[in-house]
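Budget justification, computational time. The allocation requested in the original proposal was used primarily to generate structure tokens for proteins on the priority list. As evidence of use, we reproduce two of the resulting records. The first is shown immediately below.
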Amino acid sequence: MACCIVAIATVISSFGTGSLPQINNIAQGMEATFNIQPMVTGAVLSILLALVILGGIKRIAAITSRVVPLMAAVYIIGALAVILYNAENIIPSFLLCLLMHLVARLRLVASWGRLLPMPLTGRKPWFILQ
């Protein structure tokens, strides 16, 4: 009997602990972006969530096998849209990365010059006391 209560409590808590806060964030984003009422978004996503959870692991596998490629495609299209929207900044960004890399290398070389003895000048490094 106790195991049935635990199982029922687990199913009930699975709706409120992980998924409903995410549904709330999605609903707020949909309202801000597309002016869709949060109640409508929340209701649709809650029904979809209930169908997935109550359908079991086979249904979860079937749904994710269809949703994940779609999510990847949307992500790639979104990333390309951002890159193309900022196309004029691509070359300057690469040049800035190259410049920062060279500056970091020059700083490293300069710091090693202080640590290593200089055989041509006969100077000792700063950490060796006279």
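The second record produced under the same allocation is shown here.
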Amino acid sequence: GCDGCVTVCEAGGLKEAKVLAAALRLFYTQEGRQAQVDETSLTRQCEKEYLAELGDKMEAYDAVVSLACGCGVQYLAEMYNNKIIYPGVDTCFMGVNEERGLYAERCQACGSPSPIILLRVPSKRCTISIIAERYRSRSWNISSGSRSSYLIKDYVDAINVTDNQTSVCRLCSLACCIRLKLMGLEPVLQMVTRDRNRIALQSDILGAASFGINNMLCLTGDHQHFGDHANAANVFDLDSIQLIQTVKMMRDDGRLLGGHEFEVRPQMFIGAAANPFAGPNVPMRVARLAKKVAAGVQFIQTQCIYNMDKFKEFMKLMVDRGLHEKVSILAGITPMKNVGMAKYMQKRVPGIDVPDEVVRRIGGVPKEKQAQEGINLAVDQIQELKEVEGVRGFHIMAIEWEEKVPEIVERAGLHPRPSY
């Protein structure tokens, strides 16, 4: 055993070494074989002076099972290279103790502490995370979506797949995520509570986990009145905060809402949305986000940001409450194609705050150059938001314009992406 970090984690201290030794003795007894199994623990296995304490004792044994982290196992094997050294624990990452028995990743020792684009990637690695949003086909044919996904795959950490956004019927999010996974890409599964009751929600979560889809964005969803099936019945059995709690319970407790328990748990990285611009009361928006953090959310994707001053006010209130240390914030970036789009979003899209100066900037150049000016604006926004405390990455929503994502990422200095 090791008295260092693995003892704190209750994974490899003296207590765990004794339990393992007892299990090995029982095994040999049941097999009718003789073996001497002893246990001990060192102050640390990552320092030579403590490993030297084993000294001549090592000669009495054929093999050693080390319950230290990966560093200790490797160092032990280097010092006693004439012995077989078995690793006894799986070292996955460096993390922090969020609560007893729950350790959450904060570093993967990538050696590249640059600014962060996100996931599991929004994981909490020291680089800036980037997620791009993909808008799904309104038929079963997804050839164009597959092409756009390949186009941006080397420029983002994950691809966000919407779930019947704006209440318009489209190819289901889970099917798209499965296809992305089979293509070797990292999907983020959006799931809204508008269309499913708790049985269907939990069933889809289990289905996603069975395909290795581990990133999920929990949303309530737009009311069906805004979509193409205005007469459809909604469900709203749960809201987004209750969905977050449900996913966390399935992951951490291995339990469904109905009480059924299971051992193999879905390892979901839980996300949600936040809109700093939904009304004039910014502190209220922060308070609602705090509820999502308390429910178990790990990353947040914001609404499109154009009013930089209001967003900075939102982030300051986040920092003042210490929320930026508990959740990864991905700032929403949507490039404007032309001044018509800017005016439409300013006047017609609820929850989006487009200042007049943004409209004037896009409209202040010739029509044929407005698309490029929209790209320039998006790049300038990312550069400015990089300096805002608490921003951990960017959620790029290039609406039906995915081919521009590589240019935005490159010009913003966020390419190449780190390898995980």
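A brief technical remark on that second record: DSSP finds 14 helices and 13 strands in the chain.
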